[in-house]
Fold these 3 entries.
Entry 1:
Amino acid sequence: PPFSGPDPMRTYNIILKGIDQIEFTKKISRSAHVLIKKLCRDNPMERLGYGRNGISDIRKNKWFQGFDWDGLMNLTMTPPIIPKVKNPTDTTNFDSY
């Protein structure tokens, strides 16, 4: 995750420096990188989706190009991942901390 360090104090200091200091891995596309930074502005009024067009600005972002917003709203989308769950208390799909 963007704000992580080798120990809690380092993580805290990375958080204090802000989102603009984060260097994303090459696995994260440029459009995702830009979207994340726009959503994580320190000042809420500067965040994508806060302006006059609201969530429409988020929906129109390049990273969401081709996304089925109507399918999301109508609950008709097929999930990209369907985890296997053995029983109601199965937690094997979650990381251990």
Note: The longest helix spans residues 8-17.
Entry 2:
Amino acid sequence: MKVAVNEFVRRQVKGSGKTYSKIMSFEAIAEHAQIQMGNGHFSKGYRDGVRIVHCNNSIISEFYCPIIKLNENSVLVSKLVRRRREEDFYIQT
């Protein structure tokens, strides 16, 4: 299996609100993902064709993820959205 970097992934940079690597190139991430998937270190994503690749603990600190901790004082706002016209709506919080 060959892992390639598409335009959807290339927009995952600092300031995008998405997970990104602080120093790794997209090509290095793709190479790591290819190895990890070959070793079965992935899970099913939110739709067909999407996989969540489990990165090796040795490089976990190379990534920034915008996930935050919530507590009883956190205020959440949700809306019904879809990414593409042909996809079903989902709740985005």
Note: DSSP finds two helices and six strands in the chain.
Entry 3:
Amino acid sequence: MTLHHRQSCYEWVGKPASEQWSNAPNETDPAVQHFAFHAHQSLTTFKPATEQQRMLGFGFYGQAFKELPLDACGITQCHLRGYCVKMYKENKDGTHSPQDHGAPHCMCMKGYQGHTCGEPMLGLCPGECQGRGTCNRGFCHCKPPYWGLGCGRERAWAPVPGASLIPNRIKLRIYVYDLPANVAFPLSFNDGIHDMGVDTYETDKRFLERLLRDPEVRTENPEEANLFYMHPFSYSYSSNTNPPTNQIMHVVNYVAQNYPYYNRSGGRDHFLWATGDRGVCYVPQNISKVMYVTLFGLHAFMYDGDNATFLRPLPTRHAAHGCFDPRKDIMAPPWYDNKLGLSNAPAVYEELVANNGSDPGRDILFFFAGTVRLHDTAGIYSGGVRQALAIHLSALKNSSANTSDVLFSDGHVANYETLHKRSKFCIAPHGGGFGTRLTEAMATGCVPVIIQDQVYQPYEADGVLPYDEFSLRLGKADIPLIVPMLRAVSEERLRRLRLNMAKYYGAFLWNESNGGKAYEYMIAALEQRLHRIWGRLWGDSRRHRNARALRGLGH
């Protein structure tokens, strides 16, 4: 059941619970009584359904459908792993009627996919169980002697009785918690939702698969570990825009109550990922000591109230830093390697390096194409950057200014990848949360122009990547001068920027075959954070607050 949606249900009249079944009846069957209700977290009241409401359901994204008997979807009956549905449309009067096109089709249960729900979602299992077991709806049934997450473990360790523990201060060693399925499990958020295959939201899975295969970093002995990884599968529970708060708290509480390692540090040496659009912006402050790896690095001083940031609702994680604490959290690049022909990145840079950074074929000054949302006058989406660019460039085109080599498009354009490779600069704003334009620019040799006020970029807070060597950073306030500012960049400067991009583009890609080194940079960032833990270099947010108060008093 999806919360906060209109739904319907049915009951076979006069039959005990043992004879009620879920194979959908014909909606006109007189032996069936139908009900309609609006699902809430609070108590739900069931009312007799009207004829129009019978068997009517609504998916997570609001799409209407009617459930039909399974045999309406053919002889396979959805392999008994889904529901047979026909899509409906909403009329102006609020009623629903069948869509003009589209035959009945299978809506698969969680963990299954395909036209007839006959295919398991093998990608739900980390590394598809590494050849050591069988994947069943996200659970690896491992062959002996393997066990654990992704069949990645062979042994369990216990300290020798009476032995004294010598803390490991030599090298990074990460222990991965094996959490039970009732605590964290990689099922899709809702029946019929197959967005588990969206690479960007599975960046944590990509990291986990590499970590499980990395014996130099990952340890099966928790007493040897100096960092601890909790894998909450939070996207499975909250999808892209909902806060992952409940799942993260569930996992943290379980680890704290069942293992000794969390409480001895207050969670400072524990980390987890949150790959939704806005990361951990709305995770409560009481678990703020945990190290978060996120794709959205908004850092704002929330003591300034409504003026602190563009984001709405306002971040609630911590008043001193909003969504992202640069002293301990890590910003990672999204896993986007399979999009936009990013696999061509090595060839792009091989040619650029051979030409000493020169690329005379780039005849477009700067390029952007994508969603703009001009109706968002509050500037929440993209922090107002896309809207401000659209308005400014529209005004320029109606003036005598030369914008013939500027390409800015609201929406999809053909030859998207080719246009990147023809452009000197590519605009890299964020969206409703994290964005992918920086990765696209880095993979196509187009110098990124980052316009993201208050937002840290991947591996920037750690000092692991020298952004000034391969990108330009502008503020939203610079948009009125963006054209002359970019024209003023010399060819020599462009050449040096591109050669430095050749050094660092791998930091934004995860697939090794693409030249990806994002995992290695992630390990370097974790090592940097580990040294801060050892040196107790966390700072004190109260000092920042007091300093701000002194500035307000004129000191």
Note: The CA atoms of residues 38 and 44 lie 7 Å apart.
